[in-house]
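user: can you give me the structure for this one chain? tokens are fine.
assistant: on it. calling the predictor now.
[tool input]
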Amino acid sequence: MKPLLLEEIRHVLHAEKKTVLSKGLVTGVKIDSRQLQPGDLFVAIRGARFDGHDFIAQAADKGAKAIIVDRDIPLPEQVTRNEISVLKVANTVEALGSLAQYYRRSLGSSVDVIGVTGSNGKTTVREMIYHTLSYKRRGYSSPKNYNNQIGVPITLFGIDSDHDFAVVEMGSNAPGEIAGLSRIAEPDVAVITHVGASHLEGLKDIDGVSAEKVSIVTGLRQRGVVVCGTEHGPTLEKIRTLDKGVITFGLDESCDVYATDVKRIQGGIRFLTNDHCDILLPLLGLHNVRNALAALAVVRRLGMTTAEFARAIAEFRPVDRRMVPQEVNGITIIDDSYNANPVSMKAALEELTSRADAQRRVLVCGDMNELGDHSDKYHRELGRMVAASNIDLLFAVGESAALTARAALEAGMGWSNVQRIVGSKRLARLIKSMIHNGDVILVKGSRAMEMEKVVASLARWKG
């Protein structure tokens, strides 16, 4: 982080001084007292499980330069003894965002900020952009899933003065969140990876999802561009009405960046770009072709050639728990356990059904959460798709996934090929009792289902 003056911070936040401001610079911003370094600003955030105001003494002991609070509390003696500045604001979460917006603006045009959102693929696209651009430039990327009103500001504070690009992931499960994050990050390039059925509890329907993703243009800089797929026509139509520069990507020849001659190969996919460059993508799943095209559109906009992108992406590795294959004593496990919605579940199913090397194809699926009133519909649709495919065994875990199992049975899948489990504790043991050498097992479900524990248990299987 580029250092900021304490008086500068107080002025930006219109904060009330609770102690005398000490002289010097703030060299970092943290919300977790355990991560503090001497010279950092500690922002006391109230969360679902912890209240940062309870950790002010620890922050002082760690060498915090200043502390921001949003309520009057007795200050521990460490604050006075260490001459730590304390500023009070109306809301520390909002203050964090305001300070991050100021910090981003202070970087000016020296840093290209790429904002990435979408129903699916945003983390993979974010990492593809960071990985490939890093071959020519020095940059920064959102850590893990830092994509909300706290994570995005923390990401921006991670940008140093010698970085020249930053990739910022933006997530949402309610209207207005992406627009707020975009105003904070002020991206030079805004990427919409995909629009589909996700977070419908808050966004209601596909139109609501589309409107939320399109709102990433809210904070787009004056000469910024939007990189958008073409699979959801209404989204692209909305963007074209906004008088912004648009770069399209997809598998259609009408796109600005598109792929032809797409072929599955051992351990990945091969395709040609529309400027005749051969791309070797070491990832499973045809949906990752679209993710790669989104990343290619971004890096070409920022000065990288397709040939340079090809060399870099050939060394890319799958993001944790997203279509990660592993061989375990004669079986193949495909770990796609990070999360699930109808679109990503369909993509996973397509990858599993394509496995010609499998003795049997086994799908282990958990509930798809946050689908609101549409949940039953999408879980039943998945069951019908499974029954119509070449899946040999279906393990469905969770109350909603039970509808998937029932729909598969009703659509003609054999009773011996469908297993319904209420909870995941005995799931791995049941799977192990029914699989054998040559099986390919794909594991997927929403984050709350903790399907990664199933993967971990299977990975310890002795055969």
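assistant: here you go. The mean pLDDT is 96. The chain has three domains: 4-91, 111-313, 324-459.
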